[in-house]
Predict the structure.
Amino acid sequence: MNFEEFQNRARLYVLGALETDELEEFEQARKELGSQGEAFVSECYALHEAFALSLQPAKSSAALKNRLMSMVRERAQHH
Amino acid sequence: MNPERQNGIGLEADPETEVEAPPRFPAVTPPLQAGAPTDFDLMLGIQAEDPEALSQLYDRYNGIVKALILRVIHNEAEADDLLQEIFMEIWNQAKNFSPQKGKPLGWMVTLARRRAIDGLRKKQAYARAEERLQAETEQQPDAWIQNTTEDEIALGDTRVHIRRVINSLPPPQQQAIELAFFRGMSQREIAADTNTPLGTVKTRLELGLKKIYDGLKELRDEL
């Protein structure tokens, strides 16, 4: 697998869209590429961030945040 | 198979790691006000079990995270439950966040997407979500496949730029990526869902993702 093919597979990989046989080939190429391959896979996860940022933010109630923060503060106190 | 379970961004435990690495590619997160703590600062605070740090991170990103959840499960009440669970998980798992693997927002989004898709599958809600999605599509244009100039005026610059990149793709490529990212579908599932040959789905995904990736690189250079 050349690096261009690896890049194509990596972008599918981070979406979880590789088929089983493709995943095995990809993992093998990833091992062979070492740090170069790892660096590219890490970069591809930025696609997740971009897709989320492409959406119009949704609103949540203040009560939801209050519940969350009560749980968080309780856990923080017990540690 | 979901790669995030094996290699989620920043999810691997690394207690020796200090939170110091700057974001790499692509720096597309919205700009902060002067003096505001960075996302990395807030993650440091959460790792030190400071509830105020989580409170600020929640204020900054709950809208984005909830929008992502809603995009997957299409149910307001379930989205609220998941939003709360996800921020609790961020609190509990913050020690496993490693800046070497990426930015806090990327880590949160990866985590939220995984939880939302898992939730969708557990409840075997595909059919129900499909009906809701269909109903919503009939009521209003898809968030990705539209030309909403008026909406875009109200959006932040970052969102507008990203949407422009995504909207530049042919609709079949957008649809394939939408199904893969927001529905967690494999190529075969997309092929079956859209009645499209598997090879065509693969080509659409590869071309579309490459264009978005390249577009984000250009965006990083512009910002």
